[in-house]
Every structure is written in C-alpha cells, then in structure tokens.
Design brief:
By secondary structure, this protein is of the alpha/beta class. It is built from 7 helices and 10 strands. Helix 3 runs parallel beside helix 5.
Amino acid sequence: MISVSQLIRQHPGISIPIIDKLSLEVSAGQSVSIQGASGCGKSTLLALLAGFEKSSGGSIVIAGHSLENLSQEAADAFRMQHLGVIFQQFNLLDCFNVWDNVAFTARLKGNYNAERQQTLLNKLGLAERHKAPVSMLSGGEQQRVAIARALNHLPDVVLADEPTGNLDEHTSDVVSQLLFSYCQEQGAALVVVTHSPEVARRAQIQYRLHQGRLALV
C-alpha cells in the first residue's frame, strides 16, 4: 500500500538532509507509529507521503501511484481518492459548520453517506455539535472534526500528524481506538506521528525517526 525507497528531503542551503535515504513499507491493514524529537522531520515525512512536499530524491508509491512529478491537480485528485490526512493545524473550513466540514471530501469523492457520517460523529462525541460553526469549537473539538473528515470518505491510507495532541486522556483513547479500528476493519494503511507512547504502542510496528532515518523501537 505504501512503498518508500531511499527517500531524501533536503532544504536549500542546509547541508544535512532532514530525511536521509529513508525506506518504509506499510501493507494494507497495517498500522505504523513514528516517534522522535521535535524538529526531527516527522511532519515533513508525512507531508512527503501526502504529496504536499516534493522529495529531493528517492521514490514514494502509494496505492499503486507514484508521487514523483505529479502536478498540483493530479496530487489533489490522488489525495481525494486515496488519502485521509489529519493535520496538526486541522485545516477546517471556517465557512462551514461541523457537518459540512466532515462531509466535504466525501461529497467531492462521490461516496458521501449520511448514516456513516452520523455514526462517526456519535463515536467522536460530536453529534450534538453538528450544526455548530467550527470557529465556535474548542481546539479538541476541532481536532475531532478533522479526524472525522479524514475517515469519512473511506480512504485507503490514513496519515495522522499528532491526532491526539489537543485531547484529554479519555478522548485520546477514544480517538486512538477509532483510528486503529478503522485500519483493521477497512484494510487501510495507517501511519501515525505521535509524541504519545500510549498511542504509539497501539501500532503493529513502531519506529523512531532520528537523523533522517527510521529505526524500529
């Protein structure tokens, strides 16, 4: 499902690459967690996997699609069809309420299902907030809206950047259970970047990112 080989990401003017000949394989239905110090390149790696950033070398193949040399339009279409991305900054649409934010990608993809969406909102404790403008939500509520949106269109691959960073212990457990259950039930590949040892331990394979490369924990 995810095949990364000899991946390099080097910023102009900086001699040491932030991602250095990194390789990673994630199969359908498999979950991977990545930990590491702040600034070590975890978010950069997810941005590369999502096609938001271009690599300086190596290859990324996801769901049979090579990400090298994709146009912006092709990258957007690829994400809509195959990826569920959970951002640290949420990236919600302020002009929409909770329901329409969660529905947005599924409607674009053409597989919107109101019953499925309602189930997601119930699980995440957002059912009573479905008409609320997202600008009126707390940070934790916005994070849960972003998670619901990322799963609602049934992606083949879920990329989650600190998905429990703004949540209390109980809600973090609920969200983690939802993400890892989705991976198993839908046969999706899951890559979670996290500072939480509890979240990391839920993954089938645990890595630490250090000096641009992954090492098994």
